[in-house]
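#struct-help
A.M.: can someone run this one for me? Single chain, 345 residues.
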Amino acid sequence: MSLPPCFASDNYAGVHPAVMRALAEANSGPAKAYGADPLTLAARARIKTELGDSAEPFFVFLGTAANVLALAAMTRPHHAVLCAQSAHINVDECGAPEKHLGAKLFTVPTPDGKLTPELLRPHLVHLGNEHHNQPRAISIAQATELGTLYTPAEVRALADFAHGNGMYLHMDGARLGNAASALGLTLRQASSDLGIDALSFGGTKNGLMFGEAVVFFRPEFAAEFPYIRKQAMQLCSKMRFIAAQFLALLENDLWRQNAANANAMARLLAKKLEGAPGVVIEQQPQTNAVFARLAPAVIERLQARFSFYTWDFERNVVRFMTSFATTADEVETFAAAVRAEALAG
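D.P.: on it. Structure tokens below:
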């Protein structure tokens, strides 16, 4: 049975065939548990090759866990984490950061999902005041939840700002592959070379079945993390199955091929919808997200046929996400349906 195209999330996509093969190959006989197996050791070494000698990677199951546990290594309960108001850790993690860190999130309104030193500076006025949570970490997403990208210079400026004020910089890289591909950078150039202290390196949104990596670039954070990960129930006993997927993702830059397709399909969708009566594209896609404004009745009719999310209910803005598996034919089919429904009003 042929299913309609899905534009709800890149999480909806299946597993890349090369990753599935790697999982099958890993499923051969016994192997040491908890990361002592050859595949995990090889995957950790490969990530160090990709991100630099200072990188210390640790595998976890989930993106939310990657973000929360990375920040847990950097903060204590009297600290605060500065993030964009639209950040995943603020909007889409059900309060997990504040519950498990005990620290406070200081959220910053932004027009484009991107933080700047100027936007952050007012939150530092109480540094040293024992009556206030002390800012300790800045968390940015690359790409952001609004589909926008930080330039390398912008990330470097935030890292310098953080370090100059006794703080650290964390990058939520759930879609780091999409960002690096769009910017024409290597994974290292898009992350560790820019001075970040910790990275949540996403795999699930780029072709993996499951699995993320927390990567530290400061040895003091890496030293404590094995205990943080275990206590948080994210130490995978059969870790070889996460590791095998990352090895496949990094082989021959599969991550870049997957991300490039997702990004290209978003650009194609935006182009197909451009100028359609009743469709307003909010911004040209920088990665694999298209935000569009539609009439409420149009949204309702389309959602009866296709999977996608309403992003802003007040402004009737929807989000269309593409993935490594999205095809040009699917984009054509979906764009034609959007245009037809929008024209019908």
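A.M.: thanks! The mean pLDDT is 97.
D.P.: also worth noting: The chain has two domains: 17-253, 254-344.
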